Amino acid sequence: MAETDFKNPKYYANRELSWILFDRRVLNEARDKSIPLFERLKFLSITASNLDEFFMIRVASLQDMVNAKYDKPDIAGLTPSEQLKQLDAAIHQLVELQYSTYNRSILPQLRQNGLQVIRQHEELTESEAAFADKYFEENVYPVLTPMAVDSSRPFPLIRNKTLNIAALVRKKDEKKEMEFVTVQVPGVLSRIVPLPSEGKSKKIILLEEIIERNIHKLFLNYDIVSAHPYRIMRNADLTIEEDEAADLLKEIEKQLKKRQWGEAIRLEVEAGMDKRLLKILREELHMEESNIYKIDGPLDLTVLMQIYGLEGFERLKSSGHTPQPVPELPAGCNIFDEVRKGDVLLHHPYQTFEPVVDFIRQAARDPEVLAIKQTLYRVSGNSPIIAALALAAENGKQVTVLVELKARFDEEHNIVWAKMLEKAGCHVIYGLVGLKTHCKITLAVRREEDGIRRYVHLGTGNYNDATAKLYTDIGLLTCSEAIGEDATAVFNMLSGYSEPLVWNKLSLAPLWLKDKFLYLIDRERQYALEGRPARIIAKVNSLCDRDVIAALYRASTAGVRIDLIVRGICCLKTGIKGVSENITVRSIVGDFLEHGRIFYFQNNDRAEIYCGSADWMPRNLERRVEILFPVDTPRLKEKLLHILESQLRDNVKASVLQADGSYEKVDRRGKAMFHAQENFCREATEEARNSDSASSTVTRVFIPETHR
Questions:
Q1: Domains of the chain with CATH codes
Q2: Do 431 and 404 form a contact (C-beta atoms < 8 A)?
Q3: Is 271 exposed, middle or buried (0-12, 13-18, 19+ CB in 10 A)?
Q4: Which position among 228, 348, 438, 675 bears the catalytic label?
Q5: Active-site residue 347, yes or no?
Q6: pLDDT tens digits for 298-315?
Q7: Full-prediction pTM beyond 0.85?
């Protein structure tokens, strides 16, 4: 038989179209009437936020390729122009579904539950209109800056993602030509304006409706012919020449200023906008017809998150989950003492992120800790970790922090943190030229009675205490000598030029990690060919690396059973006869964002399990610094396998990739409902309760260093 060509484009799905399918899955949560109404609002808001970023980066990148006449096809055989054409249809369908969900489902149910959203200011009663006008004069008018366009005032630069109102005006009592004017809806004011209401029901109106109602007050002596809101999206993909940048921090600061004024790539306008207004906007912004979205509803549905925050509607929200204590690390314990007893696995947000913060805080205060080294990719706005690192430096410890300045949309925050840490006395580095440092690792070097010991935290998620309550991630605290040596080598490589001759436990991208994955996949293939036990379970956010997909196809044809849990993009196709018949792909979209990466290889019944920061994407495996770490302790391996098996059992939030490229919810007819995320919440709560009731001292099995 002829050998299958696994590079054939017919075996791969387009990355961008696959992402649209992911946002559709998020949108399906907003359409699910079994979910509390305000949670549905949140999911609809998330789809809008996702789509904004998709345009600013992915669509913008494709547009750049087309402009540069780059026509190399992707792994699915589509050129950039072909991708844009298919995306145009898919995105317009997605937007129509967003607003159909909002208008036909969300709005009526909000009204039934005591919250009325006034769609147009013409709907206001006389008393409500008086309130809106007074609100405008007292709170809004002083903030606004009306801008006219004429021979002496060119069309203004409209900032990225801002909401604006365009109008045509004509001088009173004159028959002169109409003039174009625009005013930005101020982002410093809430878009949600509550109206006076009686009883338990509430009414709200959007700020742009109040401005539109009162826009004549901004242009005295003019008649308002028509006025409509609009919003533009610009190319926000930074181009940084790192090799030529004398100071990377200053170069990124300079590029950030350009982000607001990148090429316009999307124009959203109110459906029914005056054709004369639309023509002016289209010509001034150089917009193609396909990139104009005529919206039947409020522009920028991320405003729904503000509605979600309204008080008095708790009954329409889920009860939420409080991250639980980690039994191995009781409150007030000495983390170093506990970690010496054995490795500790953390499962966020089911378990609290506080031990990670405490690890750094205790290291900052402990007189025996000599040095702390950490990578930071994204941190929270008021980060306790940053404060702890600054304290450590003030306490005279050697503190080295790698702050990734190129973390997309967090560049400005990270610049602020970098400067603050430098002022506190930390040694701040920005990583390697041309690579993003995406790995999550912290090293604390401690002087103990038997010599120097290194304590390490490795994670799949960012050192962000805020998102740790929303993202599912895995963390490992260890004082393994082998991992400690590797951790030291990682930081030496990031701050200098040294590369270790060998790695004990860790595998790093971009030099070694991809080969490691390909080896592990192929090893399962070899075992299957020999008739031995062979299975792969992988949980990632995205899968679009052709070499990895081809390796999975080869393993599948050899008989390896492969179960993939892929939250977002998946370029692998299932159900291809003779290629992927042994592969299943499922995506879980729930209350928490699935973010952890876990990899299980059966290895002839000598199972190996790894966690890491990298997805199976070319950017992660070839253009970033990433870390894959093994979990060797049998008890912790069982816990990770339980996580994977629970997600494979999920028949509430899981959607399965079909052979035709669509996703369908799991058929649970005749089966008991199993919701993995809810189950993890229950397990974490029960584990913490049992730990408290049993004893404040946790009995642990000591694993000798040589076996960890």
A1: 120-296 (3.30.1840.10), 335-503+700-707 (3.30.870.10), 508-674 (3.30.870.10)
A2: yes
A3: exposed
A4: 438
A5: no
A6: 999 999 999 999 998 999
A7: yes
